[in-house]
Amino acid sequence: MYALVASAPENSAATIQLMTAEGILAGPAQTVARSDLAGVVSSLEREHAPRWVWDRAQNWYPELLAANVRVERCHDLALRQAILVHSAFTAETGYGDNAAMLPPENEASQAGSTSTQGSLFEQLSASTGWDLATVTAELGAQKAAIASSTHPARLTLLTSAESACALVAAEMQYEGIPWREDLHRRLLHELLGPEPTGYVHPEKMDELAATLRAALDAPALNPDSPQELMRALHRAGIDVKSTRSWELMEFKHPAIEPLLAYRKLSRLFTTNGWTWLEQWVHQGRFHSEYVVGGVVSGRWASRGGGAMQIPKQIRGAARADPGHKFIVADAAQLEPRVLAALAQDSTMAAAGRDSDLYAGIAAQGFGGERDMAKVALLGAIYGSTSGESGRLMPQLTRMYPLAVGFVEEAARAGERGETVTTRLGRSTPPVSAQWRASQRSSTAEEQRRAESAARTRGRFTRNFVVQGTAAEWACCWLAELRRRLRALPLETVTTSGTQADRPAMVFFLHDEVMVHCPDALIEVVTKIVHDSSRAATRLLFGEIPLEFPVNVTVVENYADAK
DNA sequence: GCACTGAGCGCG
DNA sequence: AAAGCGCGCTCAGTGC
Asked: If DSSP states are collapsed to H, E and C, what string results for A319-375?
């Protein structure tokens, strides 16, 4: 059973239509005031357990969660459309030409909540989501496109898992990461000094700036200005081409150390300091919005608060509640393993038989040098040509012709302007007409630039197939994890039997997931994490002679993970 | 004053 | 040791 959810003509209402899997309407559509929506959804969920179909989960689910209503499954039509529009598997179906225009994002449901940004136009357009006719037509068009595609099973899996992730993302946003404001403030005080009042810098930054100005003999220097800084460095005889820290570290000069220290503190103060704390941490939780499929490769992005760039420096402020632990799980060497599976390179798969793939590769041919094996393999996935990893490529190619050949072929296709596709069917967007035109250029200078652009695109497509398929593995892992956690019988696993005592996914970062878990459930949830990873591997690749091991640590404090 | 870009750096 | 992939955030600087 499907339950289609759409915007009613009146903005403050929704239309709900039940429909069978065969597309037959089950009863009349009902119009529900937005304020009654959660109650209606809750009772339909209990009665029919339908698959909810809506323009975007993000436009509907947050308000349901706020009313403590959760759903088992959905179709997020916008996320499915983003996949199907470009997928090579649906290229012959004509779907891309007929897809409905993407629904706007509902501003009110977003995590930022300060609502200071966003033009008047955006606020107006945000008020109208898809109506019932659009939702019905788009669902039909998507089902038809998948059914007539070259790989219906893979696209069904991908679009289902992606929709499940939309639910995961909204739930994570709602839960938030347990975040101890007092510990964060203590960390800031230790590193930066007392909280400054007004528009001044913290003590420790001012001290370092003064040391730096003295060392460079530049009393008026603003260390935040790359231009001023570059001039001052050159005057002091430090001949750098940029002021990047790795380049500065090559030089020996009394100004380098205070400059690097200043940079580090400045970054902490401006990005994750007191202002960040006030803006993003409320009632002991850090809430950020996740953007599923926000990256071309299908990885998640985040909006607001920089959830996916939390520096290691402040992870100590993430603490599990009393009686709880964080279960932090990350997939070991996910991308190299994905490459071995995609290329069906059984030699590389054999190297990954034990839990450390890099060590296995090092043992097979890099004289046991694990770091060397790692640099070489990542270089192959990123398209490195120079430096140490570039020099190691010939040896890697001799050892694993299938794996290296696979990414090389993806690179060549990208250079020719073709699209490439992940295991489950996410394709790169087509090259622009401008890009294609530039490839047929006449002058030598244009030719040189065109070749450079082609190589850049080759590195992109080379990485896309691996990073994108890794994102699909992680997406399936999350979906399986969510399903299994929901299936835990509430009364047998918690003392209080309340929603608050259930294990909750609270953070996800590409190949790592964090579950906030009551102490009594740590063993059972740890097993679920592992079971879900094995399920994800089977869903993507079937039965293959390669494991995707997951490292699990149980900690009170996120800083103690790995 | 606003929108945009580049530099720099945080994460994987 | 080197600088190859994908992002988001902040600030300085620029152009209107």
From this structure: ECCCCEEEEEEEECCHHHHHHHHHHCCHHHHHHCCCCCHHHHHHHHHCCCCHHHHHH
